[in-house]
Amino acid sequence: MKIALVRMTRKLALPIIAAALAAAGLLQAQQASDKDKQVAQERAQAEREAPKLELKPGMTNADVGAAGGAMTIVLAKWIGPGQVFATDIVASTLTTIRDYQKREGLTNVTVLEGAASSTNLPAACCDAIFLRNVYHHITDLEAFNKSLIASLKAGGRLAIIDFLPTKGSAVPDGVPANREGHGVQPAVVIGEITGAGLSHEKTIDNWPPDEQSRAFLVLFRKPLGAS
After folding, report:
1. How many C-beta atoms surround the C-beta of residue 54 within 10 A?
2. Which of the residues 107, 143, 168, 219 could staple to 202 if both were Cys, CB 3.0 to 4.6 A apart?
3. C-alpha distances out from residue 36 to 64, 100, 148, Å
4. Res 19: pLDDT
5. What gap in Å lies between CA 153 and CA 205, rounded to an integer?
6. Alpha carbons 50 and 52: distance in angstroms, whole number
7. Apex CA 109: angle with CA 38 and CA 119, to 5°?
8. What domains can be seen in the chain, in order of their start residue?
């Protein structure tokens, strides 16, 4: 009797387990598809952003806070025989970047783990550094900006893309209160980066220019002769 009951229970359970596994597989496939679509959209935007850095083949560049690696891939293809550093503080994100690097067959990308107070980039390594939707999350501003600028070569460019804070939104934990919410004002970015030693070159208030958005682009340059 007990054996028959166990067999019946197993027989009834198998279709349920199979259905659950199938649903999980579909969910994972959908999540992977959504992620690929997001990366494709980010790459399309990155392709419009890259020219602002005046990149040339053979340059060394960095994508700081690289997230899914969209800009990293674009930069790597753009500069050809040069080098791209991709940094992030999230281990799973670094794994994602390495996966895309392998899939794209890129040999000119170096993935580094960053830190809250440092890019962990080599000193004076970069002709250009790019941060997208990263700066408003920085908590240890003085140390991080010092590290950021030390990683630039003299004459190198820094591009910061970020977005205006939404009125009434919460300031992320640990960041200065002058952010006025989740985001940051261009004037705050300019004041902090020029105070750390870079020259402000240009601000584009609506970025990308052909889209209605709350994002902006600020460009800086490290003075010639600066260490």
Report:
1. 13
2. 219
3. 21, 10, 30
4. 61
5. 27
6. 5
7. 85
8. 45-221 (3.40.50.150)
DSSP structure string for 56-104: -TT-EEEEET-TTSHHHHHHHHHHTTSEEEEEES-HHHHHHHHHHHHHH
Q: Are 108 and 83 in contact (CB under 8 A)?
A: yes
CA distance 48 to 19: 44
- Cβ neighbors of 19 (< 8 A, separation 6 or more) are none
Peptide bond preceding 208: is omega within 30 degrees of 0, i.e. cis? yes
What does the pLDDT read at residue 26?
54
Gap between the Cα atoms of 53 and 40, Å rounded: 21
Q: Say if strands 215-221 and 152-163 run parallel, antiparallel, or are unpaired.
A: antiparallel
What's the CA dihedral at 158, 139, 64, 192 to 10 degrees?
Answer: 0
**Predicted structure pTM score:** 0.80
Tokens of 146: 């010092």
pLDDT digits (tens, 9 = 90+) for 156-196: 999 999 999 988 899 999 999 899 899 999 999 999 999 99
